[in-house]
Amino acid sequence: MDAPKLKIAIINRIIEIDDIELLKSLESLFNTSDKNISKFLELANEKLQQENENETEDFTAYIKEWVKNM
User: Fold this and answer.
1) Same domain, yes or no, for 41 and 54?
2) CA distances from 24 to 27, 45, 48, 56 (A)
């Protein structure tokens, strides 16, 4: 996705937010330096990736047992 489309997508997501506290948090974030925003987003992305990895189930044993029973 190119920069203009990404900006529009972000703006549209912000427009959908009704929670005033969340909007204030976003405002605070946007008022910080780009370096701080980058650091925050990097940490948030790492946390999201860890959560996604934790949700992955290992079906190897189940598949092996299923193949044996065929």
Assistant:
1) yes
2) 5, 21, 22, 34
Assess whether 52 and 62 both reside in one domain: yes
C-alpha–C-alpha distance, residues 19 and 23, integer Å: 6
Q: How many domains are contained in the chain? A: 2
Rounded CA-CA distance 41/32 in Å is 13
Average pLDDT score, the chain: 84
Residues spanned by the domain of 70: 33-70
Q: Is 1 helix (H, G, I), strand (E, B) or coil?
A: coil
Task: Spell out the residues 6+ positions from residue 40 whose beta carbon is closer than 8 angstroms to its own.
Answer: 29, 32
Predicted structure pTM score: 0.50
- Under DSSP, the state recorded for 64 is H
